[in-house]
Structures are given as C-alpha cells and as structure tokens.
Amino acid sequence: MNTFRVAITAVLGMVSMLLPAPATAVSSAAQAPDPKLTVTDVGLGRATVAVSGLNRVAVPVTVKAGYNSDDPLAQNTRLSVLLKRTAGVGAVSLMIAGQLTRTAGTLKNGTWTGTVDVPSTANGTFTVFGVLPGETLDGSGPTETLFNGPSIAVTGLHQPKIGVSVIPRVVPFGSGFQVKAAIYDSATGKPYGNRILLQIQNDNLCVEYDAGSKYTDAAGILVASFPAAAADFLTCVRVRGKDFDTLWRGWFELRPGIVSATPSKTSAKVGTIVPVNGSVRGTPAGCPVVLQRLYAGSQWRGVSTGKVRSSGRFTVNAQPPYAGNVSYRVSLPTCDRFQAGVSKTFVIRGI
To answer: CA-to-CA distance for 17 and 24, rounded, in angstroms?
Structure first.
C-alpha cells in the first residue's frame, strides 16, 4: 500500500468531537433583510459544471435589483448571492458569489454582475436562495433578502480531503500542542504533488474572517503550534476560496479524565448513605460518573451514579454494606472529548 495512504489512514480518526463544516456566518447575528433591497431576477451563466481537484471554476452571476437609497455613499453598493446545497453530498453546503458590482442601470434599477467560484467539494446541486447587500459577510449586518433562483449541478472529481493529527493525541491540561494537517486527493489517497494554501486556526478564526493561509510542503502537509489555552476552544483546518471555505474540518482536542473524590465521612453505620463529593478537571458538564466499590478484593462494580455539574463538581452516594473497611473510587467513562479516568481509592469504614 502507498506509504502516504497509510499515513493518512493513521491520521484520520485521531481527533475527537469532529464537527460539521459551518454553513456560513452570514446570518449568525443579523436582524432582518434590508428593506431597501428589491431583487427581481438572478441568473447563473451555467446550469452544469465539472470541477477537478483543487481547481475552481468561475461561473458568471447576474442580479437584477434595486436599492432604494438616495445616499451618495450607496452608489457603490455591492451584492452577494447565496446558494445552498439542495442535492448530493460534498464538503461544501453553501456557496457565495461575493461582492457583485453594478455594471448597468441605476442604483434603484440596475444590474450587478460577478462570479461564483465553484470548487470540486461542491459536488451536487446548489440553488440560489438569497441576495445580501453590503461588503461584509460576518453576520453583523442584515440577513439575506430571500429569492428563489436558479440551480447549478456540480460534478466534483478528485475532491480534496483533510487528515489531521493532534500531537500529543490527548492534550494534558496546561500543555501546548501541535496540529499536523495533510491535504490529499480522496480518489487516489495521494498528495497532489504541489504546495497548497491551508489555514490551521483556533477559536473564532475557524468561522470568521480570512485569517491568512500558509503553504504546505509538496506532500500537502502543514504543522502549526498552539499554546495551552487554545486546547479548550474549537480548532480547525480551512481551505479558503474567494468568498467561502472550499474545505473545512473542525474538532475539539481530547482531554484526560482527571477525577478527584472525597467522602463526607470516613466512617458511618452500616447502611447509612454517605455523600461523596468530587470534581472532574476541565468541567465536562453533563458527563456521567460512577461510584465503584471493590468486591472480593479484586473486582470493581458500580454502586451509584451521578453527573458532572456545570461547576465541574459531582456528588454520588456511598452506603457501607458491612462492618469494616470498604474501598471505593469514582470512575469517569469516556465522554465526548474527555477520556476515561478514575479517582484515587478511598475507604469508608462501616461500623
């Protein structure tokens, strides 16, 4: 088997909490459509297109619209056309024909033209559903003006795919980490053989803005380092297009399961309920914890359960079943990105 394919196979699956690609930030904080915009027609220059590999095909887009404003500053108003996936499977769910300029007519009755750069990862059918005025696409302005427009069928060949390895695989609290990303041809499992622009980002830079790309090596590999504080935020790899990401992979770093637990009493009458309080580092709120009791000196069995609260703390109940020393511990099963872990063993004496 090709050594690169082996490496990619090993890389995939090493990251937990994989997330779907964000459709867009266009409407995340917006309030309502701009009442000054009226759209009468949207046209696409092609009904079908085939795209291979990392290429993008520019498809002409034409909008007939009016923007009802007498403000001289509005004369240069630009429009963006939004297309959503309506059929097929691919890494891209939304395409944007951004920053269309007025090329004919007036502001109140004009024609805006531009292109949508179609990637291979748009494999499937996309349909125009809205038009957005202005020059920002970060959700800080109005929402799109809805418009039921034409569709384009995209055939994506040799689509790129991203493999990711986090080093170390489980990131200790207080430690920095590295991300090694590899982009390759999903049809062959091999690199494309040239340097490719990628972004390895963290937190809001995974979904906002163009944070700046760096070239991979000829094998399609790029490595980035992050400080300890970044491990509790979204991390991602992005391939930027002109107006939208053509490929995106996001995740949260794996964390160790570090559990501490202390009984409220170290001795109690047989059958008495003894609350056991503890915490899990990293605050995996909602994750289950299990109080285990040692049976026959060799086997741990669950006797009580609880859940981690939003504070990171939990309470489970012990109940000494006999007179003498009874050994307990609290176990955290693997939950989301938190790995399994157990507390130190503690003793409650039944009397």
So the answer is: 20
Q: Give the mean model confidence (pLDDT) for residues 96-105.
A: 95
Give me the mean pLDDT over the 298-306 stretch.
96
* Maximum Cα interatomic distance, the chain, rounded to a whole number of Å: 92
Query: CA distances (Å), 279 to each of 107, 138, 265, 309, 310, in order?
Result: 62, 38, 17, 9, 11
Q: Could you identify the residue written with the tokens 């999903």?
A: 186
pLDDT tens digits, one per residue of 73-99: 999 999 999 999 999 988 999 999 999
Cα of first residue to Cα of last residue in the chain, in angstroms, is 65
Pairing verdict, β 197-202 and 214-215:
antiparallel
Alpha-carbon gap, residue 45 to 319, rounded angstroms: 74
From CA 257, how far away is CA 341, in angstroms rounded?
4
Q: Work out the mean pLDDT of the chain and round it to a whole number.
A: 91
Residue 102, amino acid: R
For residue 153, what is the enclosing H or E element? strand 151-157
pLDDT band at 20 (very low <50, low <70, confident <90, very high): low
Q: What would the 3-class secondary structure string for 172-224 be?
A: CCCCCEEEEEEEEECCCCCCCCCCCEEEEEEHHHHCCCCCCCEECCCCCEEEE
Banded model confidence at residue 208, pLDDT cuts 50, 70, 90: confident
Banded model confidence at residue 148, pLDDT cuts 50, 70, 90: very high
What is the C-alpha to C-alpha distance for residues 276 and 274, in angstroms, rounded to an integer?
Answer: 6
- Smallest CA-to-CA distance from 33 within 6, 2, 7, 67 is with 67
The CA R_g of the chain, rounded to the nearest whole Å, is 27
Distance CA 220, CA 323 (A): 65
What is the rounded (10 degree) CA torsion for 55, 60, 66, 67? 30
| DSSP letters for 119-139 | EGGG-EEEEEEEEEESS--SS
pLDDT over 80 (residue 13)? no
Query: What stretches of the chain show up as alpha helix (H) in DSSP?
Result: 3-11
